[in-house]
Amino acid sequence: MADLMYHNFFYELMIAAIDLTTTTGTQLKMMLLDTNHSASTVDDAVKTDVNTNELANTGGYTTDGEDVTKGAMTPTDDDANDRAYFDINEDIVWATATFSAYYAVLYDDTHASDALICSYDFGGIKTASGGDFTLQFAAPGSGGAFYIA
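The structure assignment produced for this chain is given below.
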């Protein structure tokens, strides 16, 4: 589950600039950031606000991050828990990776300014040395990649 939701994301949803439908809408991407990242719900709105802390294009990481498969995204209205949540029903994998990261940021690559959606704090350094670097989300239906209450 996301550690931080960017305020601008809510605005972009309200004006329909971000479309989270499962097959026709926005192309989401996940980028990885280094220890210098300092997430701000207010000051960070678009990719250029955070990409100075993105990992370098090396060691199996490609700048701009990995695509989230459109068919693997599921928005759900959860009336029982008084919230809506968004599942990403796949792992995001950087194969044969040799790098370290501290944060991941989900953003809308289709948006004109690459609007930020949410940030994940790994709680410390996460490293891969020649193996897969994998981000796993909560099981579908258990709060997903992020929720709005």
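Interim note for the steering committee: The chain has one domain: 4-148. The longest helix spans residues 7-14.
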